[in-house]
Each structure stands twice: as structure tokens, then as C-alpha cells.
């Protein structure tokens, strides 16, 4: 073989010579799990020829990118099946999403559960036909001819040059570079049996989808995610490399449904969402109030120990405050509309004194700045750490509101720290360690960090200040030893931030605490302190929310613990169950000793039979059940029954009280 017939590639880190025109499929022929190639950083179909000098990696089907390709390919198979079932269906967009995919269709009638079951059977038939996914580059005229019966695809072609911001999912179909169509090609005849406008890449063939997919649900959706557009029907599905992986996912979803905090909140009588109050405005019942108070009380004590000072601010303010802060310029869509009040009118109805716009506050930081600015400040007072459980209100769209995790009225455990530039790095480190330690106390201990940087279209302040703030946050995050993931453009308009991402018991990731470094609001509010040399200087401002919001944090913990809160948070920590009515007084005495020790305990003296009382305590997820009968009363003892069904009999009352008090104090159960 002459040199002219060869090219050099870097394949999985090693230099390799191959014949000119070699494809990814030929290069990775012996690796059956490779479904797509990463070529110079871009994902490419395996049937594409590899260029000279390319850096090539094999992407396996079980990798994150491989899974995305698998799911997007399965979406194409589903769309093919839909147009077989309903030939008049018009295609929308069909991207992959976390753990699955969806595809939108314009159809006369909504899809039914029976339709989904029939579609799954039709998809399996397509999969078993081992159709090839074949990419072809076309001109715009050729694309329009191929898609002439698909009005939504024709609209996408008109958005090609603005695909990045044209609407939900547009970049999946068209974008920078060539216009491409993918054909589902019959193996035997070589004919295209279905096609779609798509950027790809895709699997080499449908057989790789195997039988490890499922259609999960259907719903209404708006074209390009815009409520002003045509309403379509969306089908969601999931796909995995193996049946075992699919089954494990389905079990996780079933467990997530069992842990849904809205369901558990009703079952355990913790909170509710009355229609009379409006969307996103929960109420906490007595038991939920106990959990919330325990969460807040512990947080308050930890903040006191860490040198924070408590402040309180009102729920509404004149609009001018948020003009100064910039929120009315950059955040108005997330605020409730203004209340125009205080106007004074003459008898003839003309305005004698104009009114003013007041707003429900969406953020506490402008008010904390007013507290800092209320008098002269010295460097000796810094760092000044202000803390508030502050009620804020944000206008979340009705389709976004979700239980406690996305509400319109919330309580933020909000802190703002004012320090010198020399102090800021140490203060950020201390704050991050404080946040991580406190989250661990609530039972979350699997973290990574995300660094959100400047949105080039939505920021205030000078580039140099942003660069310094971003660099400092990155250094602090890296020094923590935790994984750091970039979030380009994800910062709020006044500064970059670190967010703590925590995994729950099901391995789901939740954004928890945020730490934001801000040089801009101190400038806008003209905050100053007197430095050691007598000059007036601007403080640095650190925004920090631990829970994010108390409501959201409680929703996350409810699902993390599946409603079985650790004893220190449980609304009822102990239930005493006498074996018979004759032992009621004995059990009341035991429970009285627990209450005197600060334990939330009660006696079940209902008319239910003893086995039913045990089942009720289990259903209510009580941490400790104490049982007493004749032998226990004679011995001055009780029997322990734990949530896992295990039991410890004949425990002296004093020891039982000590065990429970220790467990609550040490947060061990």
C-alpha cells in the first residue's frame, strides 16, 4: 500500500494509518458497542469517511453521547410508526431528552394508552427489520421537495440561520452547516421507507435499538414551546442499551412516583395546595409545620454559631428599589405585576398627587443593601454576614409550577455577606464549607459543583470585575476537591455563581445551595466602608442561599427520605402502643418522660385493635414505636419496634428514653 493511499488518524489516543476513505464503521468493526464516532470533537455517523489527521474516538452505546444517539434514533422509529398508524399525522420535532426522547405530531385526535401500546408493537417490527439510518446532504430546494407534505418541517427550513434561538428543539433539525435528511432504509430493497429532516447523528441500524424501549405517556404541547403557536400532541418514550437497563430505569421511575412529595404530603398530612389560594401557593399543616420548624431552628442555630446576624425585611417595596438593583430591567418577567397605590385625587377626579408602583419582592438582596447602607461602616465590622428567612414572590408560569419544588411564594434562607476584596476568597471558602457541612447534617452528602458564568446578553458591570469574580469562584471550587462542571452563560445578571448539586437517594440531581460573588450591586447602591487607611472603599457582596427555598428543600427531603424522615425531623418521633387498655396509664407515664426530655411523643389509645395500631404507625413512618404489655409493666420496660420491622424487647424505660434522646440529638436515625 503506497503512502498516497493512506491517511493518519489519532484513534483513541494512538496514531493509526488507514486507507483513504475509511469510515468509522470500518475503523471500529470489531467493537460492536461503538455506535457513533467523535471526530475532532463532533459526533459523526459511522458511515462517514474520516479525514486526514482527524482525532477519532469510538462512542459506545452506553455512554452519555451514545445514549442520546440511541434515543434520538428511537424517536425516528416511533415517528415512522406513528405515520403508519395515522398517515395524516404531521411531524413536529423529536429530540432526545434526559433518560428518553419525545416527538411532537399534529393529529386530529389525541393519542390514547391503547395507541401507545399499538405503536410499541409497530416499533418493534421496524426494529427487527434492521433498517439502516442513512444520512444525505441536500440543498434547501431538495429538502423542501422531500418535506413538501410536512408544513412544520418547511417552517424549520426557514429558521435555519437562527436555529439556536428560534424555539424549543429547532437545533435538532436544522442549524449551522449542511442541511441533512435521514432515511430509514429497508435492508432488502434498499428503498427509503421513511425520512425526516434532521442533523443527526444516528445509529447505524434500527436493530441496535433492540427491545429495550418503551413509550411512557402522551400530552399536549405547543409548537416550538410557544403557547401562541399551534397545539400538538407529544409522545414521550425511553430507550436503553439492554432490557435489564430498561427494567432498572422503570423501577427507578416507579420508586420516584412512590416518593412523589405531593403524594406523600397528602398521605402524611404535611402540606396541601388549595385551589382557593392559587397556583404555587402551598399551606403547611401542623405536622408539616413541625418538620419545617425543626429544619429552620437547626439552620438558625448553625448560623448563629457561624457569626451571622439576623435581619427582617418587608414583603413589598416601591418599584424604585428594583430599578436601582436592575431587577426591573433584567428580571421583571419573573416578578408579579405592580400594585399602583397612594395616588391622591381631587374632587373632580384629577390627580393631585401621583401614586407609586409597589412590587412583591422577588429578592431580599436590595433590602439587605439598604441595611448595610443605613449608617457608616468600618472595615472592623467586615465580614458582615446578614441572614434572613425572607418571604419572596416570583411569577412562575402555571405550566412550570410543581408542588413544593417550583412555587410562587417561598421563604429563602438568604444570606448576604459583605467583605473586603482581601477577605473574599477566604470568606467564599468558609461559606462553601459551611453550606456543605449543613447539607450533610440534613442527610445529603453526594455533591458536585457547577460554575455559572456570564451571560453575554444579560449582565451588568465591567468585564474585568466579572473575570476576577469568576476566577476567584473557580479557585475556591477547585480547592474543595469536588467535581466542577461549567455552566456557560448561566449566571444571574449581577455576578457568577457556584451552585451545589446534590444527589438524592435515587441518584437524581437537585440544585441546592448557591454562592454568588457580586461586585456590581455594591456599586449600584453606592455601598461603602472606611478602610484601615481612612479611604472609602466598596465592599464585595456574596449572595448565599442554603436551601434555595425552605419549600423546595422540604420537597426534596420528603422524596429523599420517602417520607420516613430521620427522628430529629419527624413530626411524631415516638408512638406508644399499649397491648391492651389496662396498660394505657403505664404507657402515658413512659411517654410523659419522653416529652419531658423534649421528644415529640404520643400514645395511641384509639379503638383500633393492636395489630392495626402497629400498621398505622408503620404507614405514618414513625421512627420509634414503643410497646408495653404485662411483662413490660412489671419489669419497668418497653419493647422497641423500628421502622424496618425489627424489634428489641424488654428495654428498661430509662434506657429507652436515653436511646431516643441520643438518636434525636445526634441525628443518627
Describe this structure in words.
The structure is a single chain. The model has no long low-confidence stretch (mean pLDDT 92). The chain has an eight-stranded mixed β-sheet with strand order 16-22-23-30-27-26-24-25, with helices on both faces. Strands 2-1-5-3-4 form a five-stranded mixed β-sheet. Strands 6, 7, 8, 12 and 13 form a five-stranded antiparallel β-sheet that branches. The protein is an alpha+beta fold. The protein folds into four domains: 3-60, Beta-grasp domain (Ubiquitin-like (UB roll), Roll); 65-255, 2-Layer Sandwich (Threonyl-tRNA Synthetase, Chain A, domain 2), CATH 3.30.980.10; 284-342 and 353-560, BirA Bifunctional Protein, domain 2, CATH 3.30.930; 574-666, Rossmann fold (3-Layer(aba) Sandwich), CATH 3.40.50.
Task: Describe the secondary structure blueprint for this structure.
Layout (H helix, E strand, L loop, with lengths): L5 E6 L2 E6 L4 H4 L6 E6 L2 E3 L10 E6 L3 H22 L4 E2 L4 E2 L2 E7 L6 H16 L3 E7 L1 H7 L4 H8 L11 H4 L5 E7 L6 E6 L15 E10 L8 E9 L3 H16 L2 H7 L3 E2 L10 E2 L1 H20 L3 E2 L5 E3 H7 L1 H4 L8 E3 L2 E2 L5 E3 L2 E5 L4 H9 L10 E10 L15 E11 L1 H21 L5 E6 L10 H17 L4 E4 L9 E7 L5 E10 L1 H5 L4 E2 L5 E2 L2 E6 L4 H11 L13 E5 L5 H13 L4 E3 L6 H10 L4 E5 L1 H6 L1 E6 L4 E6 H14 L3
Parallel strand pairs: 1-5, 16-22, 24-25, 31-32, 31-33
Antiparallel strand pairs: 1-2, 3-4, 3-5, 6-8, 7-8, 8-13, 9-10, 10-11, 12-13, 14-15, 17-21, 18-21, 19-20, 22-23, 23-30, 24-26, 26-27, 27-30, 28-29, 33-34, 34-35
